[in-house]
Amino acid sequence: MPTNLRVGIVGGSVGGLFTGVLLHRQGYQVTVIERARHGLARRGAGLVVQEQVRRILGQVDRPDLAEVGVWTNERIVLDRRGEVISREHRPQMQMSWDLLYDGFRKLLPEQLYLTGAAVEYVERSEQRAQVSLIDGSTQAFDVLIGADGQGSTVRNYVNGDGSQGILPNYAGYVAWRGLVPEEAMPEQAKAQLFERMAFHFGEGIHALGYLIPGSDGQTRPGERRYNWVWYRTMPFEKLRDLLERAGRASALSLGPGELPEDIRDQLRADASALLPPSFAAAVTTEAQPFVQPIYDYETPRMINQRLALLGDAAFIARPHTAMGVAKAAGDAMTLAAAMAGRSIDEALAAYEKARTAQGQAVVDYGRSLGRSLSLVP
Ligand SMILES: Cc1cc2nc3c(=O)[nH]c(=O)nc-3n(C[C@H](O)[C@H](O)[C@H](O)COP(=O)(O)OP(=O)(O)OC[C@H]3O[C@@H](n4cnc5c(N)ncnc54)[C@H](O)[C@@H]3O)c2cc1C
After folding, report:
1. Gap from CA of 50 to ligand 1 centroid (Å)
2. What is the per-residue pLDDT across 269-297, written as a single tens digit (0 to 9) for each?
3. In angstroms, what is the span from residue 79 Cα to ligand 1's centroid?
4. Is there a contact between 98 and 106 (Cβ–Cβ < 8 Å)?
5. From 3.40.50.10610, 3.30.110.70, 3.30.9.60, 3.40.50.410, which CATH number describes the 63-95+169-294 domain?
6. Which of 56, 148, 253, 333 to mutate to test the pocket of ligand 1 (most atoms within 8 A of CB)?
7. d(Cα 149, Cα 334) in Å, to the nearest integer?
8. Tens of pLDDT, residues 171-224
9. Residue 233 in contact with residue 376, Cβ under 8 Å?
10. Is the distance from the beta carbon of residue 317 to the nearest atom of ligand 1 less than 6 Å?
11. Ligand 1: which atom is nearest the Cα of residue 15?
Protein backbone atom coordinates (compact mmCIF):
# COMPACT_ATOMS: atom_id res chain seq x y z
CA MET A 1 0.00 0.00 0.00
CA PRO A 2 2.05 3.02 -1.18
CA THR A 3 1.39 6.17 0.81
CA ASN A 4 2.82 9.65 0.73
CA LEU A 5 2.91 9.87 4.53
CA ARG A 6 6.38 10.80 5.76
CA VAL A 7 7.77 9.04 8.83
CA GLY A 8 10.89 10.42 10.49
CA ILE A 9 12.77 8.13 12.86
CA VAL A 10 15.35 9.67 15.19
CA GLY A 11 17.98 7.04 16.04
CA GLY A 12 19.30 4.40 13.67
CA SER A 13 20.21 1.67 16.14
CA VAL A 14 18.20 -1.52 16.21
CA GLY A 15 14.94 0.08 17.45
CA GLY A 16 15.00 2.70 14.70
CA LEU A 17 15.96 0.13 12.06
CA PHE A 18 13.28 -2.37 13.10
CA THR A 19 10.66 0.35 12.76
CA GLY A 20 12.12 1.85 9.60
CA VAL A 21 12.26 -1.47 7.76
CA LEU A 22 8.72 -2.52 8.72
CA LEU A 23 7.18 0.86 7.83
CA HIS A 24 9.16 1.13 4.58
CA ARG A 25 7.75 -2.27 3.60
CA GLN A 26 4.26 -0.96 4.34
CA GLY A 27 4.84 1.86 1.83
CA TYR A 28 5.60 4.78 4.16
CA GLN A 29 8.17 7.41 3.15
CA VAL A 30 10.73 6.63 5.82
CA THR A 31 13.82 8.63 6.85
CA VAL A 32 16.08 7.35 9.64
CA ILE A 33 18.22 10.08 11.23
CA GLU A 34 21.30 8.76 13.07
CA ARG A 35 23.83 11.03 14.73
CA ALA A 36 26.76 8.55 14.57
CA ARG A 37 28.86 9.55 11.59
CA HIS A 38 29.84 6.06 10.43
CA GLY A 39 26.78 4.10 11.49
CA LEU A 40 27.03 1.67 14.40
CA ALA A 41 28.58 -1.38 12.75
CA ARG A 42 31.00 -3.44 14.86
CA ARG A 43 30.18 -1.70 18.15
CA GLY A 44 27.80 -4.19 19.75
CA ALA A 45 28.30 -7.29 21.84
CA GLY A 46 26.06 -10.33 22.24
CA LEU A 47 22.40 -10.80 22.89
CA VAL A 48 20.13 -13.63 23.87
CA VAL A 49 17.65 -14.34 21.07
CA GLN A 50 14.22 -13.71 22.58
CA GLU A 51 10.92 -14.66 20.96
CA GLN A 52 10.19 -11.12 19.71
CA VAL A 53 13.55 -11.00 17.93
CA ARG A 54 12.70 -14.28 16.17
CA ARG A 55 9.30 -12.87 15.23
CA ILE A 56 10.63 -9.67 13.69
CA LEU A 57 13.31 -11.60 11.78
CA GLY A 58 10.51 -13.85 10.47
CA GLN A 59 8.50 -10.80 9.39
CA VAL A 60 11.40 -9.50 7.27
CA ASP A 61 12.21 -12.97 5.86
CA ARG A 62 15.57 -13.26 7.66
CA PRO A 63 14.91 -16.04 10.23
CA ASP A 64 18.40 -17.36 9.38
CA LEU A 65 20.02 -14.50 11.35
CA ALA A 66 18.60 -15.88 14.60
CA GLU A 67 20.60 -19.08 14.06
CA VAL A 68 24.02 -17.39 13.86
CA GLY A 69 25.65 -17.24 17.25
CA VAL A 70 27.91 -18.84 19.81
CA TRP A 71 26.58 -21.63 22.01
CA THR A 72 27.40 -22.11 25.66
CA ASN A 73 26.60 -25.50 27.20
CA GLU A 74 26.51 -24.83 30.90
CA ARG A 75 26.46 -22.22 33.62
CA ILE A 76 29.07 -22.17 36.36
CA VAL A 77 29.41 -20.03 39.48
CA LEU A 78 32.92 -19.22 40.73
CA ASP A 79 33.94 -18.22 44.22
CA ARG A 80 36.52 -15.52 44.86
CA ARG A 81 39.41 -18.03 44.66
CA GLY A 82 38.17 -19.34 41.32
CA GLU A 83 36.70 -22.64 42.55
CA VAL A 84 33.56 -23.77 40.72
CA ILE A 85 30.86 -23.82 43.41
CA SER A 86 27.95 -24.79 41.17
CA ARG A 87 27.47 -26.16 37.69
CA GLU A 88 24.26 -26.49 35.66
CA HIS A 89 23.74 -27.91 32.15
CA ARG A 90 21.92 -25.10 30.31
CA PRO A 91 22.58 -24.69 26.58
CA GLN A 92 22.07 -21.13 25.32
CA MET A 93 23.06 -19.16 22.25
CA GLN A 94 24.40 -15.61 22.10
CA MET A 95 23.66 -13.87 18.83
CA SER A 96 25.77 -10.99 17.55
CA TRP A 97 24.25 -7.52 18.01
CA ASP A 98 26.33 -6.37 15.02
CA LEU A 99 24.86 -9.07 12.78
CA LEU A 100 21.32 -8.02 13.71
CA TYR A 101 22.16 -4.36 13.09
CA ASP A 102 23.90 -5.11 9.76
CA GLY A 103 21.06 -7.42 8.67
CA PHE A 104 18.41 -4.73 9.19
CA ARG A 105 20.61 -1.98 7.79
CA LYS A 106 20.80 -3.88 4.49
CA LEU A 107 17.01 -4.11 4.34
CA LEU A 108 16.64 -0.32 4.23
CA PRO A 109 17.70 1.53 1.04
CA GLU A 110 20.91 3.44 1.76
CA GLN A 111 19.45 6.87 0.90
CA LEU A 112 16.80 6.51 3.63
CA TYR A 113 19.41 6.22 6.43
CA LEU A 114 21.14 9.53 7.20
CA THR A 115 24.37 9.36 9.22
CA GLY A 116 26.15 12.14 11.08
CA ALA A 117 22.72 13.76 11.47
CA ALA A 118 21.96 14.76 15.06
CA VAL A 119 18.54 16.11 15.97
CA GLU A 120 18.80 19.16 18.19
CA TYR A 121 15.23 20.49 18.39
CA VAL A 122 11.74 19.19 17.62
CA GLU A 123 8.54 21.07 16.90
CA ARG A 124 5.25 19.24 17.20
CA SER A 125 1.69 20.07 16.22
CA GLU A 126 -1.61 18.25 15.61
CA GLN A 127 -0.69 17.38 12.03
CA ARG A 128 3.09 17.17 11.79
CA ALA A 129 6.49 17.21 13.48
CA GLN A 130 9.62 19.01 12.41
CA VAL A 131 13.21 18.35 13.41
CA SER A 132 16.14 20.77 13.38
CA LEU A 133 19.48 19.09 12.90
CA ILE A 134 22.74 20.23 14.39
CA ASP A 135 23.89 21.51 10.96
CA GLY A 136 20.98 23.97 10.97
CA SER A 137 18.81 22.12 8.41
CA THR A 138 15.19 21.12 9.10
CA GLN A 139 12.95 18.27 7.99
CA ALA A 140 9.19 17.91 8.38
CA PHE A 141 7.25 14.67 8.82
CA ASP A 142 3.68 13.50 9.31
CA VAL A 143 4.85 11.43 12.26
CA LEU A 144 8.16 11.37 14.15
CA ILE A 145 9.36 8.32 16.09
CA GLY A 146 11.91 8.85 18.86
CA ALA A 147 14.10 5.74 18.80
CA ASP A 148 16.98 7.78 20.18
CA GLY A 149 17.85 5.64 23.19
CA GLN A 150 18.61 6.32 26.85
CA GLY A 151 19.35 10.05 26.51
CA SER A 152 16.48 10.66 24.05
CA THR A 153 15.92 14.19 22.76
CA VAL A 154 12.43 13.39 21.38
CA ARG A 155 11.38 12.32 24.91
CA ASN A 156 11.75 15.95 26.04
CA TYR A 157 9.06 16.97 23.54
CA VAL A 158 6.71 14.06 24.23
CA ASN A 159 6.69 14.79 27.95
CA GLY A 160 7.18 18.56 27.82
CA ASP A 161 8.01 21.46 25.57
CA GLY A 162 11.65 20.49 25.15
CA SER A 163 13.03 23.12 27.47
CA GLN A 164 13.83 20.51 30.15
CA GLY A 165 16.17 17.60 29.50
CA ILE A 166 14.56 14.47 31.00
CA LEU A 167 17.26 12.12 32.21
CA PRO A 168 16.89 8.50 33.33
CA ASN A 169 17.38 7.58 37.01
CA TYR A 170 20.81 6.25 37.97
CA ALA A 171 20.46 2.92 39.80
CA GLY A 172 23.60 3.31 41.97
CA TYR A 173 25.86 0.85 40.15
CA VAL A 174 27.69 0.50 36.86
CA ALA A 175 28.67 -2.28 34.49
CA TRP A 176 32.36 -2.24 33.59
CA ARG A 177 32.63 -4.09 30.30
CA GLY A 178 35.08 -5.48 27.81
CA LEU A 179 35.26 -7.56 24.64
CA VAL A 180 38.53 -9.47 24.47
CA PRO A 181 39.57 -11.21 21.23
CA GLU A 182 39.51 -14.92 22.02
CA GLU A 183 43.18 -15.52 21.15
CA ALA A 184 44.32 -12.76 23.54
CA MET A 185 42.84 -14.48 26.60
CA PRO A 186 45.37 -16.27 28.88
CA GLU A 187 45.25 -20.09 28.59
CA GLN A 188 44.11 -20.73 32.17
CA ALA A 189 41.22 -18.29 31.85
CA LYS A 190 40.24 -19.86 28.52
CA ALA A 191 40.14 -23.32 30.07
CA GLN A 192 37.80 -22.21 32.84
CA LEU A 193 35.59 -19.69 31.08
CA PHE A 194 35.16 -20.72 27.45
CA GLU A 195 32.11 -22.63 26.11
CA ARG A 196 30.13 -21.77 29.26
CA MET A 197 28.50 -18.86 31.02
CA ALA A 198 30.43 -17.99 34.14
CA PHE A 199 29.18 -15.97 37.12
CA HIS A 200 30.61 -14.58 40.34
CA PHE A 201 28.66 -12.97 43.18
CA GLY A 202 30.48 -10.91 45.84
CA GLU A 203 29.87 -8.00 48.20
CA GLY A 204 28.54 -5.18 45.95
CA ILE A 205 29.86 -7.14 42.96
CA HIS A 206 28.33 -9.29 40.25
CA ALA A 207 30.48 -10.51 37.35
CA LEU A 208 29.63 -12.63 34.35
CA GLY A 209 31.14 -13.56 31.02
CA TYR A 210 30.59 -15.60 27.89
CA LEU A 211 31.83 -15.94 24.32
CA ILE A 212 30.12 -13.98 21.58
CA PRO A 213 30.70 -13.86 17.81
CA GLY A 214 33.67 -11.91 16.40
CA SER A 215 33.18 -8.33 15.23
CA ASP A 216 32.14 -9.52 11.75
CA GLY A 217 29.83 -12.19 13.12
CA GLN A 218 32.43 -15.01 13.11
CA THR A 219 31.42 -17.99 15.24
CA ARG A 220 34.42 -20.28 14.60
CA PRO A 221 36.76 -21.05 17.54
CA GLY A 222 39.72 -18.68 17.40
CA GLU A 223 37.66 -15.82 15.91
CA ARG A 224 35.19 -15.13 18.72
CA ARG A 225 35.33 -12.53 21.53
CA TYR A 226 35.03 -12.93 25.28
CA ASN A 227 32.37 -10.57 26.62
CA TRP A 228 32.83 -9.80 30.32
CA VAL A 229 30.58 -7.64 32.46
CA TRP A 230 31.43 -6.52 35.98
CA TYR A 231 28.58 -4.85 37.89
CA ARG A 232 29.83 -2.82 40.80
CA THR A 233 28.38 -0.32 43.24
CA MET A 234 29.34 3.30 42.46
CA PRO A 235 27.84 6.29 44.29
CA PHE A 236 26.40 8.97 42.00
CA GLU A 237 29.07 11.53 43.00
CA LYS A 238 31.82 9.14 41.96
CA LEU A 239 30.13 8.49 38.62
CA ARG A 240 29.80 12.25 38.04
CA ASP A 241 33.52 12.71 38.80
CA LEU A 242 34.42 9.87 36.44
CA LEU A 243 32.42 11.37 33.55
CA GLU A 244 33.91 14.81 34.24
CA ARG A 245 37.44 13.40 34.36
CA ALA A 246 36.83 11.79 30.97
CA GLY A 247 35.70 15.17 29.61
CA ARG A 248 32.17 13.82 29.06
CA ALA A 249 30.23 15.44 31.90
CA SER A 250 26.87 15.25 30.11
CA ALA A 251 27.32 11.69 28.77
CA LEU A 252 25.34 8.74 30.13
CA SER A 253 28.18 6.25 29.56
CA LEU A 254 31.79 5.99 28.34
CA GLY A 255 32.66 3.89 25.31
CA PRO A 256 35.86 1.99 24.44
CA GLY A 257 38.87 4.33 24.51
CA GLU A 258 37.10 7.01 26.57
CA LEU A 259 38.29 5.89 30.01
CA PRO A 260 41.15 7.96 31.53
CA GLU A 261 44.29 5.83 31.78
CA ASP A 262 44.64 5.96 35.57
CA ILE A 263 41.03 4.81 36.00
CA ARG A 264 41.65 1.91 33.63
CA ASP A 265 44.74 0.98 35.68
CA GLN A 266 42.75 1.17 38.93
CA LEU A 267 40.05 -1.06 37.41
CA ARG A 268 42.70 -3.65 36.57
CA ALA A 269 44.18 -3.49 40.07
CA ASP A 270 40.69 -3.83 41.63
CA ALA A 271 39.92 -6.79 39.39
CA SER A 272 43.05 -8.60 40.56
CA ALA A 273 42.14 -7.91 44.20
CA LEU A 274 38.41 -8.66 44.06
CA LEU A 275 37.52 -11.07 41.25
CA PRO A 276 38.19 -14.78 40.68
CA PRO A 277 41.57 -15.08 38.84
CA SER A 278 40.06 -16.04 35.45
CA PHE A 279 37.69 -13.04 35.45
CA ALA A 280 40.54 -10.79 36.65
CA ALA A 281 42.59 -12.06 33.68
CA ALA A 282 39.78 -11.13 31.28
CA VAL A 283 39.56 -7.61 32.77
CA THR A 284 43.31 -6.99 32.75
CA THR A 285 43.67 -8.33 29.16
CA GLU A 286 41.10 -5.86 27.83
CA ALA A 287 42.86 -2.94 26.14
CA GLN A 288 39.86 -0.59 26.18
CA PRO A 289 37.43 -1.35 28.98
CA PHE A 290 34.30 0.79 28.99
CA VAL A 291 31.62 1.67 31.48
CA GLN A 292 27.84 1.50 31.26
CA PRO A 293 26.10 3.10 34.26
CA ILE A 294 22.79 1.37 35.00
CA TYR A 295 19.62 3.44 34.64
CA ASP A 296 15.87 3.02 34.96
CA TYR A 297 13.36 5.07 33.06
CA GLU A 298 9.66 4.85 32.39
CA THR A 299 8.00 7.47 30.24
CA PRO A 300 4.74 8.96 31.53
CA ARG A 301 3.48 9.05 27.90
CA MET A 302 4.56 7.22 24.76
CA ILE A 303 2.90 9.63 22.31
CA ASN A 304 2.07 13.30 22.06
CA GLN A 305 0.42 14.74 18.94
CA ARG A 306 2.51 13.37 16.06
CA LEU A 307 5.43 12.16 18.22
CA ALA A 308 5.94 8.63 19.53
CA LEU A 309 8.68 7.04 21.65
CA LEU A 310 10.06 3.55 21.10
CA GLY A 311 12.67 1.25 22.66
CA ASP A 312 15.02 2.73 25.28
CA ALA A 313 13.74 6.26 24.60
CA ALA A 314 10.47 5.15 26.21
CA PHE A 315 11.43 2.54 28.82
CA ILE A 316 14.94 1.62 30.01
CA ALA A 317 15.18 -1.80 31.57
CA ARG A 318 18.37 -2.93 33.30
CA PRO A 319 20.60 -5.21 31.25
CA HIS A 320 20.03 -8.18 33.63
CA THR A 321 16.69 -8.62 31.85
CA ALA A 322 18.46 -9.16 28.48
CA MET A 323 15.26 -7.72 27.00
CA GLY A 324 16.26 -4.31 25.56
CA VAL A 325 16.39 -5.51 21.96
CA ALA A 326 13.30 -7.73 22.32
CA LYS A 327 11.34 -4.83 23.80
CA ALA A 328 12.37 -2.57 20.90
CA ALA A 329 11.31 -5.31 18.45
CA GLY A 330 7.94 -5.64 20.22
CA ASP A 331 7.42 -1.87 20.06
CA ALA A 332 8.31 -1.74 16.36
CA MET A 333 6.01 -4.65 15.39
CA THR A 334 3.11 -3.21 17.40
CA LEU A 335 3.54 0.26 15.90
CA ALA A 336 3.82 -1.10 12.36
CA ALA A 337 0.73 -3.27 12.83
CA ALA A 338 -1.19 -0.29 14.25
CA MET A 339 -0.16 1.85 11.27
CA ALA A 340 -1.45 -0.70 8.75
CA GLY A 341 -4.89 0.49 7.75
CA ARG A 342 -5.61 3.06 10.48
CA SER A 343 -5.29 6.84 10.53
CA ILE A 344 -2.01 8.08 12.07
CA ASP A 345 -3.74 9.41 15.18
CA GLU A 346 -5.70 6.20 15.78
CA ALA A 347 -2.56 4.15 15.17
CA LEU A 348 -0.47 6.12 17.66
CA ALA A 349 -3.18 5.86 20.32
CA ALA A 350 -3.47 2.09 19.75
CA TYR A 351 0.33 1.76 19.98
CA GLU A 352 0.53 3.58 23.30
CA LYS A 353 -2.35 1.54 24.71
CA ALA A 354 -0.74 -1.74 23.68
CA ARG A 355 2.85 -1.06 24.83
CA THR A 356 2.77 1.02 28.02
CA ALA A 357 2.05 -1.79 30.46
CA GLN A 358 4.58 -4.02 28.70
CA GLY A 359 7.35 -1.41 28.98
CA GLN A 360 6.55 -0.78 32.63
CA ALA A 361 6.62 -4.52 33.40
CA VAL A 362 10.10 -4.95 31.90
CA VAL A 363 11.47 -1.98 33.87
CA ASP A 364 9.98 -3.39 37.09
CA TYR A 365 11.47 -6.80 36.32
CA GLY A 366 14.92 -5.21 35.84
CA ARG A 367 14.62 -3.42 39.18
CA SER A 368 13.70 -6.64 40.95
CA LEU A 369 16.65 -8.48 39.38
CA GLY A 370 18.91 -5.59 40.45
CA ARG A 371 17.60 -5.81 44.04
CA SER A 372 18.23 -9.55 44.15
CA LEU A 373 21.90 -8.91 43.34
CA SER A 374 22.30 -6.59 46.38
CA LEU A 375 24.52 -4.19 44.45
CA VAL A 376 23.26 -1.09 46.23
CA PRO A 377 23.52 -0.84 50.03
C1 LIG B 1 26.36 0.76 19.37
C2 LIG B 1 25.40 -0.01 20.25
C3 LIG B 1 25.72 -1.32 20.60
C4 LIG B 1 24.84 -2.07 21.41
N5 LIG B 1 25.16 -3.36 21.70
C6 LIG B 1 24.30 -4.12 22.41
C7 LIG B 1 24.59 -5.48 22.66
O8 LIG B 1 25.59 -5.98 22.24
N9 LIG B 1 23.70 -6.22 23.38
C10 LIG B 1 22.52 -5.68 23.84
O11 LIG B 1 21.71 -6.41 24.45
N12 LIG B 1 22.22 -4.39 23.61
C13 LIG B 1 23.07 -3.59 22.91
N14 LIG B 1 22.78 -2.27 22.69
C15 LIG B 1 21.58 -1.72 23.31
C16 LIG B 1 20.33 -2.13 22.62
O17 LIG B 1 20.44 -1.92 21.25
C18 LIG B 1 19.22 -1.30 23.22
O19 LIG B 1 19.12 -1.45 24.60
C20 LIG B 1 17.86 -1.71 22.73
O21 LIG B 1 17.86 -2.44 21.59
C22 LIG B 1 17.03 -0.49 22.44
O23 LIG B 1 17.61 0.14 21.37
P24 LIG B 1 17.15 1.52 20.86
O25 LIG B 1 17.26 1.45 19.38
O26 LIG B 1 15.88 1.93 21.49
O27 LIG B 1 18.24 2.52 21.47
P28 LIG B 1 19.87 2.57 21.25
O29 LIG B 1 20.30 1.23 20.82
O30 LIG B 1 20.38 3.16 22.45
O31 LIG B 1 19.99 3.54 20.02
C32 LIG B 1 19.72 4.92 20.07
C33 LIG B 1 20.30 5.52 18.80
O34 LIG B 1 19.88 6.86 18.69
C35 LIG B 1 20.97 7.66 18.27
N36 LIG B 1 20.68 9.03 18.73
C37 LIG B 1 20.59 9.45 20.02
N38 LIG B 1 20.29 10.76 20.06
C39 LIG B 1 20.18 11.18 18.78
C40 LIG B 1 19.87 12.42 18.18
N41 LIG B 1 19.61 13.51 18.93
N42 LIG B 1 19.85 12.50 16.83
C43 LIG B 1 20.11 11.41 16.06
N44 LIG B 1 20.40 10.19 16.57
C45 LIG B 1 20.42 10.07 17.91
C46 LIG B 1 22.18 7.02 18.92
O47 LIG B 1 23.38 7.34 18.27
C48 LIG B 1 21.82 5.54 18.80
O49 LIG B 1 22.28 4.98 17.62
C50 LIG B 1 23.62 -1.48 21.90
C51 LIG B 1 23.32 -0.15 21.55
C52 LIG B 1 24.18 0.59 20.72
C53 LIG B 1 23.82 2.02 20.33
Report:
1. 17
2. 999 999 999 999 999 999 999 999 999 99
3. 34
4. no
5. 3.30.9.60
6. 148
7. 18
8. 999 999 999 999 999 999 999 999 999 999 998 899 999 999 998 888 999 999
9. yes
10. no
11. 25
